[in-house]
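DM from R.C. (forwarded with permission)

"hey, sorry to bug you on a friday — could you get me a structure for this? deadline for the figure draft is monday and I only need the backbone to look sensible"
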Amino acid sequence: MITPKSFQNKTVAVLGLGRSGLSTTKALLSAGAHVLAWDDTEKVRLEAEKQGVSLTNLHAADWKTVDSLVLSPGIPHHFPTPHPLVSQAKEAGIHPISDLEILGLTQRDATYIAVTGTNGKSTTTALIGHILKENKVPTEIGGNIGIPALDLAPLEKNGIYVLELSSYQLELSPHFHPSVSVLLNITPDHLDRHGGMEGYIAAKQLIYKNSSAEDTIVVSLDDPHCKKIYEALEISRQVTTLPISIATFLLKGISVQKGMLFENQIPIIDLHKFEKLKGTHNWQNIAAAYGALRAVGLTPEQIITGIDTFPGLAHRQQVIGRYKNVIFVNDSKGTNAEATSKALECYKEMPLYILLGGRSKEGGISSLRSYFPFMTHAFLYGEAAQDFGNTLEGHVSYTQCATLKTATSKAAELAFSSEHSEAVVLLSPACSSFDQFQDFEERGLAFCEYVKGLEIS
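My reply, with the result:
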């Protein structure tokens, strides 16, 4: 745990007591801060009390006595409308911050590698951290992936924090300063929270807000928004740029051509050998990780050795079992159509039974039309089921299912009864999980359990 000593004797309000909020509360208490902890959801409050957290109703707080407000990233502070308590705090001159901001202010001597993007950031973050650990570099991995920022271990000057950052976290971390930042892609997501696409792009750009020419940003040129950002940074020279591409052979930078990774036109490694990182989207993740690690001084040989032992991530095209003629794949992290397209690309050569549904993102699955011919049958569930059915009508045969459990059972039944020598049942919902599950991880674990519980004769 991080102990943010600069908050000793300060009065700090913590709004939102999910995983990161509880972590922040405990860290601040360990530092001797006076913590006013609150969550608007009674169930969450009860769970916090079970863990020994004393609650303070912030709706009755005197904000003139409060020094800081730490806000859960899931709580609106700007769009579509600010949470009422955020508005009260701002009126008192208090601007909300994140646990990431506190980490950066507390562990100043460590090096930070920060990864953001709409898709691929979890795999890239985990891959970078894994390679560093394989090379015996003191490393902590967290942020928006896995461990909350203040639950990480303290690191000194020789240590590296590898952090996955969401757009929400970036907006709440005004002084955060990574030595190496990675910008993978920007496709429409969370637009209601940012007031539209321009606001979302602006939030992602905050990753290099405090960067200097001594710092490095790894940027994908394959995404038009990222390419525009790269071109502007090349002109401003605010930060050292390191471009990557899986579409274009770069004279300078990291590129992938036909599966071969190149650094400044020099061939490095054939990426086809890495079975846990299948697909061109993972080639982009490898290129980004390679660039970030070169920026902190690792050799190509050290990086390749680390990639070779990477185990992959749960809920990201995770093969969870093979029964009879059917492979079951858990891609619960496919929370939008863009992410789902990556999984479809990997399995489009096989008979594919896909599970789609949850709470739909803007645009639904319309952008997946080019993949419709590769879907043998779709199983739709949750809030998005009816809309998705309307989109698929006349293009893909589908079955309406109330729940993910029903969809899993029906998909397995149809796949087992087919005459295909090999088929895939793929959970890649193209939706958030919040209609039926707490998060994508809970959804993925449920799918795994449903698959294990299938009656297979």
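R.C.: lifesaver. The two ends are 49 Å apart (CA to CA).
me: no worries. The chain has 15 helices and 20 strands.
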